[in-house]
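Protein modeling request. Please complete all fields; requests missing the sequence field cannot be processed.
Requester role: graduate student
Desired output: 3D structure, C-alpha cell encoding
Chains: 1
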Amino acid sequence: MYVFRVDKEADDFLEIKKEYKLTKIGDHKPELRFYPNQLSGELKGKASFAILFSRDTKDIDPILSEIQENMRHSVMEVQPSLFNSMIMQYALEEQKNIVYYMYEGEKGLSINFMALSNHPLFEDNSVFLALYNPPYEYFEGLTKEMLPNVGVVPKLDVGFTEGHIQQQNIDGGLPFERILGEVARTVGKEQELYEMERGIHKKANKARNFGEITSDQDFVDRCINYRKACAIALIPAVTQIDYEMANFE
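Delivered output (249 residues):
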C-alpha cells in the first residue's frame, strides 16, 4: 500500500486532479482516496472512492477500517475444527505452504496479512487461511496474549509422521516487511525475495508434464500421483492423412 502527496502548485496538477478524481484537493481541504488493489488503468480509477475524515481528529481507526473492508485479498476464513484437514489437503496433497492468521476481537484481518496474501512471492505455492477465536487447546502453547499471530506450515514431505508437523509462529503485530521476511525464510524463499526486491528475479517458466497415456499405470503416474491439476485431451484415433483421404477424394 502506498500513500502519495500531490503538489497543487505543480504544472500538471489539473491533469492529475482529473485523472485521479481528486475532487476536494484544490479547495484547500484534505482528501484521502482509496484505489482498490488488483485493478489497473481506468478500472482502478473508476472503482476508487474518497474517504471522508476531519483534519482535527487523531483517530485513524475509521480510516483503516474502511480500507480494510475494501481491500481485495486471497485469505480464506476457516473453522478451527477444519484446520487439520486443511493441512492434509494443501500442505500434503497439493504440496503448498500454509500461512494462517489467528485473531480475536472486532478488528478482523489485519491489512498487513491481506497484503501478504497478494504478494507475488507466494502466488503459486501458498495458501492463506484465517482462524477467528482459535481454541487454545488446538494450538499447543498459544495464549490470548499472543494474538494476533501468524503461523506457517511449510509443505509436508510425503513420508512425514502424523502429529509431528513443524510450524513457525510470528507476532502478527509486527510491521509488514518483518512478517514478509519471516514467512519467506520459513518456506525457503528468502533468496527469491531478496532477488525480487532488487529487480533481479526472473520467474521461471513452469515445466509442463506433457505425454501420452497408454495404460492405467500411465494414468496413475501422470495424474493421480502428480499432486497437481491434470488436463487430458481425448483425441480421435485417426490420422490427418486418413481424414483427408476419406473426405477429399
